[in-house]
Amino acid sequence: MSEIELHRQLLGDTVRNDAFAAALKRVVKPGAVVADIGAGTGFLSFLARRLGAKACHLYEYTPAIELAQALARRNGIDGLTFVQAHSTQVRQPPKADVVVSETLGNFALEEGLLETLADARRFLKPGGKLLPRALREFVAPVTSPRLQREVDVWAAIGHGLDFAEAREFGLNNMYVKLVRPDDLPGEKIAATWDEIEFDGKDKPTAPRHGEARWNATQLNGAAVHGFALWWEIELAPGITLSTSPYALATHWQQVYLPLLEPLHPAAGESIEIALKSDTRKGVRLVWEACARKAGGKPRGAQRLDLLRGRL
C-alpha cells in the first residue's frame, strides 16, 4: 500500500476523525502544548491548534511530514514544529500538556501502539493527558464457515496436487476480514482477552496474554471454525472508538484467526482459546484452542503461530 493510500483511508474514515476530534476537544485547553506522535499528514495537530493549543510538535519519520508541512501552509495553520524522526529516537523532547497518537492497526497492536504509548510518557508534563487512555481487545468464536472457506483454499486446488505444506503456512496466519454479525453465535458472545491502561500507574509491556471460553449452550451447539478479534479504544473520558462488527463501520476491519480443523463442542463441553501477543520485534501472535469438559483433558487441541506462517 502506498503512503498516500494509507492516509486516504485514514482521513476518509469519518467515524475515526469525529471520535478523535471529540476527544481532542475534551482534553485540549487554550494555551496547551500538544505532542502528536506518528503525526502523518498533521490532521490531529491541525485540530488541536484550532481548539486553542499554543503549540504542536509533530513527530513523523516518513516523508508524510513534508505533506503535513504543505497542508499546514495551505490551511494557514502556524504554531507547528515538525520533527522527522521516530518518537523513540527523540532525546529530551519538549514537554506537552497533551500527547496524542493514532498508531492503531486492524490487530490493535500491530503498528507499535503499545511501545509508542509506553514511550510517550517521556513527552508529558506532570498531570498531562495521554490520548488514547486505554484499550480493550476482544475475541469471539466464529461459527459460520464463510471466512474459513475464504482462507482455506488449499484442498480445492485440484489437478491431482496436494498442497498440505502450503495449507500449514496459510492457516498459521491472521487475516484482515470483514466479520459479519451472522458469522458469530450472538452479539454478546465476545470476551475481553486483554486490557491495557496507557495512562495508568504501571507502564504496559509486551508480551500480552489472555484467554476465553464458551460453553456449548452459548455456541448453540455449533462448530467453531476460527476466532474473530476486534478492539475498543478509550480516547478520552466517555469517548470510545470500536471496530466491533456491531459498531459503526470504520476503515479498520476485524481479524480472523483460522483453525486447522473445526472444533465441535459436545454437550457439557466448552471451547477454550489462549492468546499471546508479542510486539517487541515485529508482531507475533500465538493462539491455542481446544474443546474441554469441566476438569477434563483437552480434546482437539490446536496451536497456531504467526511465526510458523512466515515464508
Identify the notable features of this structure and list them briefly:
311 residues, 6-stranded antiparallel sheet, 5-stranded parallel sheet
The percent range for strand residues is: 35-45%
Main beta-sheet annotation: 6 strands, antiparallel
Q: Unreliable segments (pLDDT under 50, ≥5 consecutive)? A: none
Structural class: alpha/beta
Q: Radius of gyration, rounded?
A: 22 Å
The general outline is: elongated
For the termini, the CA-CA separation is 20 Å
Helix amount: 10-25%
Strand count: 15
Order of helices and strands: HHEHEHEEHEEHHEEEEEEEEE
Provide a count of the helices.
7
Overall pLDDT metric: 96
Question: Could you walk me through the main structural features you see in this protein, from its secondary elements to its overall organization?
Answer:
This protein is of the alpha/beta class. It is 20% helix and 35% strand. It is built from seven helices and 15 strands. Strands 6, 7, 8, 10, 11 and 12 form a six-stranded antiparallel β-sheet that branches. The longest helix is centred in the first third of the chain and has 14 residues, at 14-27.
Which helices and strands appear, and what pairs or packs with what?
Layout: H1 3-11, H2 14-27, E1 33-37, H3 43-50, E2 55-59, H4 64-74, E3 80-83, E4 96-101, H5 113-119, E5 124-131, E6 134-142, H6 146-151, H7 164-171, E7 175-177, E8 191-197, E9 208-215, E10 224-236, E11 239-242, E12 254-263, E13 269-278, E14 284-293, E15 298-305
Parallel strand pairs: 1-2, 1-4, 2-3, 4-5
Antiparallel strand pairs: 6-8, 6-10, 7-12, 9-13, 10-11, 10-12, 13-14, 14-15
